[in-house]
């Protein structure tokens, strides 16, 4: 499947696009406040690359009634996003969750998420323009080794190396394939709090050979 557009020279197809789903207001304000109040103080694990960023331990939904509510509210978007990835609506489970607290000057280096298929970020505060989540191509991919990079070059979907997500509001969700590289540039604004999670489908079926996930 692909999307297409028309140029003066002919029809252009966008082959194998990568899905990213944005859902505004997935969490109600009362739940957002509860998560901030309960988990901000539990974020004590230092980030490997930024002294102004700390995390909670890895959490499971049943560690707190608040997280049970979060998992329930993201289940429908996860099913829709999973259908984009695998061509079928199926059950999904949130595998792990953690809260990130980034102070002014903090950043998150480029990374992706292992041992999962879909990942998400729920913003628990507003985000300064400087620290919007950036998604980028994996380094060392199959692109040409030479670049056309100068002030007059026009950046488009076929030559861009990164995409800056829209400014979120508290309670907004972004879902993306776990392999997709992403980062947060240095935060020039106020404290930035988010809840990240990884998710897996209940099973994958390849012509009768079924792989199930449990735990």
TrEMBL record:
Pfam families assigned: 2OG-FeII_Oxy_5
Domain of life of the native organism: Bacteria
SUPFAM superfamilies given in the database record: Clavaminate synthase-like
Xref: NCBIfam families: TIGR02466 family protein
Protein known as: Fe2OG dioxygenase domain-containing protein
Natural source organism: Roseateles aquatilis
């Amino acid at each position: 499947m692909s999307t297409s557009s028309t140029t003066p020279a002919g029809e252009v197809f966008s082959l194998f696009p990568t899905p990213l789903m944005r859902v505004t207001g997935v969490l109600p304000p009362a739940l957002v406040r509860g998560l901030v109040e309960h988990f901000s103080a539990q974020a004590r694990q230092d980030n490997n690359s930024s002294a102004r960023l700390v995390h909670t331990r890895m959490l499971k939904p049943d560690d707190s009634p608040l997280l049970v509510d979060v998992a329930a509210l993201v289940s429908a978007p996860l099913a829709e996003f999973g259908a984009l990835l695998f061509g079928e609506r199926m059950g999904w489970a949130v595998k792990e969750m953690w809260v990130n607290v980034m102070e002014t000057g903090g950043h998150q280096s480029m990374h992706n998420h292992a041992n999962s298929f879909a990942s998400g970020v729920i913003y628990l505060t507003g985000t300064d323009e400087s620290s919007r989540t950036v998604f980028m191509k994996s380094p060392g991919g199959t692109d040409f080794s030479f670049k056309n990079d100068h002030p007059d070059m026009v950046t488009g979907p076929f030559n861009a190396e990164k995409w800056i997500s829209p400014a979120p509001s508290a309670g907004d969700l972004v879902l993306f394939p776990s392999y997709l590289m992403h980062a947060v540039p240095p935060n020039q604004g106020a404290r930035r709090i988010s809840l990240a999670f990884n998710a897996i489908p209940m099973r994958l079926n390849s012509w009768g050979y079924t792989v199930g996930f449990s735990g």
